[in-house]
Amino acid sequence: MVTFFIALAVLIGGYFIYGKFVENVWGVNPSAETPAVCNNDGVDYVPMDWKKIFLIQFLNIAGLGPIYGAVAGALWGPAAFLWIVFGAIFAGAVHDYFSGMLSIKHNGASISELVGIYLGTVARQFMRVFTVILLILVGTVFMLGPAKLLAALTSGITVTIWLAIIIAYYFLATILPIDKIIGRVYPLFGAALIFMALGIAGGLVFGGYHIPELTLQNLHPEGLPAWPLLFVTIACGAISGFHATQSPLMARCLKSEGQGRQVFYGAMIAEGIIALIWAAAAMTFFNGTEGLQAALANGGPGAVVHILSTSLLGKVGGLLAILGVIACPITSGDTAFRSARLAIADALNLEQIATAKRLFIAVPLMTVGFLISRIDFGIVWRYFAWSNQTLAMFVLWTAAAYLAKSKKLHWIATVPATFMTGVSITYILQAPEGLGLSTSFSYPVGIIAALAALALFLYKASKKEEIERPQTMSA
Questions:
Q1: pLDDT at residue 195 above 90?
Q2: Domain that holds residue 212
C-alpha cells in the first residue's frame, strides 16, 4: 500500500511543481484577452467560471477511459503505476496543456489546424481527415455501448430505440450553445466520477485490502510484453490524443490564460489519480492479475467495474457504476461529435453562429454516425488504441515545434514526443491488427524510428535558428 500512497503523492506534487514549471515555460499573460472574451458568440465561445470548465474538461477527457483502460492495464501488475504517474505528469498533462494553450493563442483553433500551423500543410490536411474519422468512431462507439446496456436493463425497449434517443441527445448537444446542456450537466457527472473513485479508494484503504507494492516484473497472465502494449492499453490516465480534440472546446471558454494550468494540466492529473485508483482496485480485489483476467473474461471491464463498485460501496456503488458505464461514455460521445463539427467548420472556414450553418455540418455527421453504428466494425475499432496514441505523438511534436520556434525549452515536449513515437511505431509493427511482426524486429525498428524523428526535429530546429539569426542581428 506504500507504493499506492507514494504514487498518489507524486501525482499531486507533479501538478504543483512540474505543472508550474510547464506554465512558466509557456509564459502566461494573465491580462491577455482570450478567445472566449473577444469572440464571445454565445454558442461555442462562451466565458465560464474556470471551476466549471475544469469539471467539463475532466469529464470530456475521462469518460470511461481512465477506468476501463486502467483495469485492463492492471493485468501487467504494479508496473502500471509507473506509467500512470510519470505518463500523466510528463506526457499527458503536457500534451493537454499545450493543446489547450495553443488553441487559446490561435483563436480557439481545432487541433488539426494547430498541427498545420507548426508542422506544415501536409500534416494539416492529414490531421483534418484523421481527427474527424477518430472523433466519429469515438462518438459512434460511445452511443452504441450505452444503448446496448440500457436495452439490457429495460424491458420492451430495443437497442434501436435507445440508439435513437442517444442520437437525438447527441444532436442537441452538438448544435446547442455549450452552456445550455454541457455547461450545466457535465459538472455534475464530473463530480460523480470523482466521488465514485474516492469511494473505491476509501473502500480499499479502510476495507483491509493490501494493495501490492511496486515490482518491475511483468505479471501479465499471458506474458504479453509491457512494451508497447501497456503504454497503449492505459491511454486515458497517462496520455491520450483524444484529449487534444477536447481541449480546444474549453479553450473557447476560459476567461484568462492564467487558468490554463488548473483546467488543462489539472484535469489530466485528476484523470491520472482516477486511473491509479482503479488500477489498484483491479489488481487488489481479485487477488492478483490471474484473478483479474478471469473476471475480465467473465464480462469485460464493465463487469469488473460493477463488481468492484457494489462490493466496495454497496447499493450506492452499484447505482454509481450504472451511472458511470452509461453516462460517462455518452458524455464523451457528444463532445466527440461537437469537436468534429468544430474541426470541420475550422477546415471550411465556416462560422457557426447561425443555427443553419451548424446544422449543415451536424446533420451529415449524425447520419454517418448512425450508419456506422449499424455495422459490426469491431476489427476497425481495434485500430483506435493505436490511432489515439499516434494523435498524441503528433500533438507533442506540434508543441515541441512551437517551443523551438519561440526559443523556449522544447525538451519538455520533445522527450515525450520521442517516447510516444517509439510507442506508436512499435505497436503498429507488432500488434495483430498491424503488421504482426516479432518483437525482435519491432523493438529495434520502433526505437530507431523514434530516434530518427528526434534527429530530424533537432536538425530542422537548428536550421531554422541559422536562418532567423541574421534577421535578428540586422534588426
A1: no
A2: 2-24+35-382
